[in-house]
Amino acid sequence: MEFAVETRGLARTFGSLRAVDGIDLQVPTGSFYGFLGPNGAGKSTTIKCLTGLLRPSAGEMRILGLDPIADPVSVKRRIGVVPEDLALFERLTASEMLMFIGQVHGMGDETFKARSADLLSLMDLNSAATTLIADFSHGMRKKLALAAALLPAPRLLFLDEPFEGIDAVASRQIKDLLHSFVGRGGTIFLTSHILEIVERLSTHIGVIARGRLVAQGSLAEVRSGAAVGKTLEELFIDLVGGERAAADFDWL
Amino acid sequence: MIGIFRAFLWLRWRVFINSLERTGARDTIERFSLATEKLGPIMALVLLVPSSMALAVLGLVAGYGTATGEWLLPGELVRYFLLASTVFAVIGPVVLPMRHGGNVVRLLLLPIPRLALYAAHLTGALADPWVLLTVPPLLMIPIGLAAGGSVVTAAVAVLAGLAFLLVVIGLTSLLSSAIHLLLRDRRRSDFVMLFLVVALPVLGLAPSIMTAQRASERIADKAAGRRPTDHAPSRIEIAARRSYAYLPSELYMRAAHVGRDDRQTAVLPLAGLGAIALVVQALGVGAFRRMLDMPQSLGARRAGALSDVWARKIPCLTPAASAVALAHVRLALRTPRGRSMLVAPLLMLLVFGLMIQRHGGLPFAGVSINTGLSLATFVTFLSLLSILPFAMNQFAIDKAGFTRQMLLPLSIAELLAGKAVGNALVAAVPATCCFVLAAILFPGGSPALWASLPIALAASYILVAPIAAALSAVFPRTVDLSSIGNGSNAHQAAGLLGLLSFGLSTVPSALLALLAARLLHRPGLVPLFLTLWLVAAAVVSWLLFIPVRRLVASRCETLAQHN
Question: How far is CA B176 from CA B11, B87, B171, in A?
């Protein structure tokens, strides 16, 4: 099997904290990979390592067959990212932001215009195309970040909580678009707290807890180890050991 | 109520201490960078104790001296200190980093009455350094007066001191609220901040401008061997002197000084001070209520259609580097701090040009600017210096945009080239306008020297560009380019070292110009010498960029955190 993302012993420490503790990811090419984990498990740190924002403390990575440490520019030419903090230029307009992305990717003028028109229309940002991003709502920023990730037509998308703060209509359209992207051979690496979304969209999942990968494989493979009829939420809680007694405060 | 005040005091104290303690630094360089930035506030805090004690002693001596009629100087010192305190109460909330009104609005979620919230807001102003320093002399003057035997005046001074304190904290609170109201709308905020950024330096020049005519007349009288002419004060001067008497600091001094001999005289200034305190507090309450009631205004604005100018590629740069440079220029065009860099040199040209035309010149920092060439030299180098807040913090000013650049197929070399060209363009726009205008308005002088000026500027900038990149990488600072003063400045260390490097980079050009024009008496050689220096500077710069690229690459992870 060919992997779009493959890591071996990937680790990242911050002082004494091992945020990512030697994980071996295998994301098949053409899959929709849902990366799950409780808060502080190391999801965002893993994405940051994979996209070149953080240098791993140990381990190896291959992104689309390339080494992102040795050849970061070639890797970045092939990927699109919606990072945790969206990473937008506050003082550019939506159109200018996309133009910046297009220019850095060396995109031709006609290609840029056609793609940005499609994306702005899909994200319902046409009327806000000449508004400064500083004046955007959180949902609008999220949509623009998605548009920016899709603009260069990447082969691999890293999406960190892409549906958070997006309205139902746009969310539906984006999901359809992402499905069609995967259908055409693209790969998506997605983190989300909304397990229903992951369950509905993903073909493969990986579960991280306390920096370690506790489960990985196709949805069917991961489910096969659990009791029949368990939902992804129940499975997830079993895997990360999050089952706790229900809180019941008599003063509340 | 006391519980609420205690909670507010604790909150302010913890926020201050946490800001000093928690660095969140990822490596030694960042720890050093953050530590140097915090050195200023810590030093100020340390100096506050002896300063307060010295001011308390000054107040005591001034009070005693007033009562006994023996010493007048301490009283005069107190007078100027109180005047400075009043001025700071007005300027402080504008220039210093803003006290966050937004936090106050969030406190409405708690069960606190609005008036208690205002009282807490007012009490918060007591922690401002200029107010903290005002309290000791105001406390000690009455004690000094009483010790000198003027018990009645001491009692009046207590009341006047209270009224004065209410005026000062009221002014601080009123202006904080007013500024918060103004700045809630980003567009209006940008306009107000740009106005202030441009107006404050001009205000700083105002005394020189106002006395320029007298100064030039004195110089002319001296040159002609005449006695200096006595001038009757102008109407503006008379009005200024009259209104000075009604300043809160003056009213306080009159109440505290004159009360001993004539109670009637003390009553009037005391009543005046009380009335001012009442008005200021009433306005303060009104502005504060409006701040709480007014919903957040976004005032979404259009930036116009997507201009083709920004779609172009800058020659000699890769598309990626060109995109970085253009994004950098747009940042300058769309932030008050950036716009001020473009406008301030032109404004200086206007002011100095008027002075040259009307009075034959204007002394500035010990140098007389009296010819077109000297004016062009001054304002073009000012254009270069004015980009310090951008150039010396070139990565962190992008905020989240820097992270975006790290996610894109952009090499460090392209990033640095884009930033260097972007900064050059930001400086070049006002410098070129100033140069052309100065040449048109005040022609004359050696054409060779005029031609040398752009070459000298280019050589200086080329030499400083890698240093600016290195300093920006080592001393990144999260800034708000919509604010003025410290809030939008580069890291203090980067700013200082940057200023020094700019200064040093001009030395070779100046020496070469002096060598050709003064020693060899051949001004025509200056452009040639400077062109050779420009080539040498370009080589040095290219060599310097090699280690700087490695430095920036190693710092990218840290820089991406400065959102």
Answer: 19, 14, 8
What is the rounded radius of gyration, in angstroms, for the C-alpha atoms of chain B? 28
| pLDDT in the model for residue B217 | 66
CATH number of the structural domain A3-240: 3.40.50.300
Give the per-residue pLDDT at B296.
59
Contact B420, B469 (CB under 8 A): yes
Closest CA to B380 of B419, B436, B444: B436
- Tokens 């913090």: give the residue: B393
Give the pLDDT score at B340.
84
DSSP-H helix ranges across A36-159:
43-51, 72-78, 94-104, 109-122, 138-150
Buried b (16+ CB within 10 A) or exposed e, B192-216: bbbebbbebeeeebeeebeebeeeb
Tell me which residue of B137, B139, B130 sits closest to B169, measured CA to CA: B130
Phi first, then psi: give them for residue B296, nearest 5 degrees: -60, 130
> B61 or B103, which is more confident?
B61
**Among A119-123, A134-138, A234-238, B479-483, the least confident range:** B479-483
Backbone angles phi, psi at B423, to 5 degrees: -65, -40
**B563 vs A86, A213, B399, B484, B532, CA distance in Å?**
11, 30, 4, 18, 42
Sign of CA dihedral A151, A152, A153, A154: negative
Contact B407 A73 (CB under 8 A): no
Chain A residues with CB under 8 Å of B304 CB are 130
Tokens of B506: 């001009």
The distance from CA A195 to its chain's CA centroid, rounded to whole angstroms, is 14
User: What does DSSP assign to residue A131?
Assistant: B
Assess whether pLDDT exceeds 70 at residue A162: yes
Question: Is B175 a residue whose pLDDT tops 50?
Answer: yes
CA-closest candidate to residue A44, choices B554, B22, B561:
B561
* CA atoms of A38 and B411, how far apart (whole Å): 34
Contact B456, B513 (CB under 8 A): yes
Per-residue pLDDT at B410 exceeds 90: yes
**What is the rounded distance in angstroms from the CA atom of residue B263 to the CA atom of residue B47?**
39
pLDDT digits (tens, 9 = 90+) for B341-368: 888 889 888 888 888 887 776 666 666 6
**Chain B neighbours among A 84-143 (CB < 8 Å)?**
85-93, 95-96, 99-101, 103-106, 109, 128-132, 134-135
Contacts of B406 in chain A (CB under 8 A): 52-53
Residue (of B256, B205, B214, B196) closest to B59 by Cα position: B256
- pLDDT, tens digit, for every residue of A227-248? 667 778 888 888 887 666 667 7
Mapped to the 3 state alphabet, what secondary structure does B181-219 carry?
HHHCCHHHHHHHHHHHHHHHHHHHHHHHHHHHHHHHHHH
Do B335 and B190 meet the contact criterion of CB atoms below 8 Å apart? yes
Q: B134, B165 in Cβ contact below 8 A? A: yes
A119 pLDDT more than 70:
yes
A1-23 as b/e, with b when 16 or more CB fall inside 10 Å? Answer: eebbbbbeebbbeeeeebbbbbb
Per domain, the residue ranges of chain A are 3-240
3-state secondary structure of B519: helix
Cβ contact B349:B375 at 8 Å: yes
Contact B407 A106 (CB under 8 A): no
Does position B38 have pLDDT exceeding 50, yes or no? yes
- Closest residue on chain B to A127 (Cα): B302
Q: How confident is the model at residue B456 (pLDDT cuts 50, 70, 90)?
A: very high
Across the beta sheet with A212-218, the strand order is A79-82, A156-160, A187-191, A32-36, A204-209, A212-218
Q: Scanning the structure block, which residue is given the tokens 């215009």?
A: A113
Sign of the four-CA dihedral B328, B333, B336, B337: positive
In total, chain B counts a number of residues equal to 563
How far apart (Å, rounded) are the C-alpha atoms in residues B500 and B307? 38
Is any Cβ of chain B less than 8 angstroms from the Cβ of A77? yes
